[in-house]
Amino acid sequence: MTRSIATMVRAIIDRTHLPRTKVEQTTRELQNAGLVQLGRGANTRPVDLSNTLLGLCADKVRHAPAVVNQYSSLRRLVEAEHVKAGDALESWITKIWSGDRSEADKTLRIVQTWQEIVVEDRHGHTEHFYPTGTLLEQHTLFDVRRSIEIPGRVIAQIGADLGIRGCLYAA
């Protein structure tokens, strides 16, 4: 089993059922921008998966690098281990890939209607990340939110597809 970027892309397509061309073109665009590791035989890192998942939220593939930069700079309003969303996502993926099953029970929700990232566990506890200076009243303005939800189990399955030992329980 290889841990290459190409294997990660195939695993994302298989596990999320997102369109093949969207995932492949988004990853290529992120590689061109230097946000996903580039090079033949390069191993997939948690930050590569994190950036790819954030890039898939872009409406247009060419906007993916800017979307990744915007979403990964979102901040928590309270003190925490990871204040920035990009660092928190990378840490979450690392914990799942190391075999932490309680982390795999969480769900990642990337809200596209306005910039927000939510990580929710099965008990309803949520961690929210917002842009700096956001007014929290904006939640009442929208009745419908367009978002992408990715369960932690899917992250674990992608890790298992990459051959990561801590994720073999999810295969």
Q: Could you give the topology of this structure?
A:
Elements lengths: L4 H12 L3 H13 L13 H10 L8 H9 L12 H13 L3 H4 L2 E5 L4 E5 L5 E4 L17 E5 H10 L10
Antiparallel strand pairs: 1-2, 1-4, 2-3
Describe the protein's architecture and organization:
It is a single chain. Strands 3-2-1-4 form a four-stranded antiparallel beta sheet. The protein has 171 residues and is α+β, with helices and mostly antiparallel strands. The chain is built from seven helices and four strands. The chain is 42% helix and 11% strand.
The number of strands is 4
Oligomer: single chain
Give the helix level as a range of percent: 40-55%
Strand order of the largest sheet: 3-2-1-4
**Given the C-alpha coordinates, what overall shape results?**
globular
Query: What series of H and E elements makes up the topology?
Result: HHHHHHEEEEH
How many alpha or pi helices? Answer: 7
Q: C-alpha Rg, in Å?
A: 15 Å
Distance between the termini: 13 Å
Strand fraction? 5-15%
> What is the overall pLDDT average?
86
Q: Segments where pLDDT lies below 50 for 5+ residues?
A: none
Structural class: alpha+beta
Largest sheet: 4 strands, antiparallel
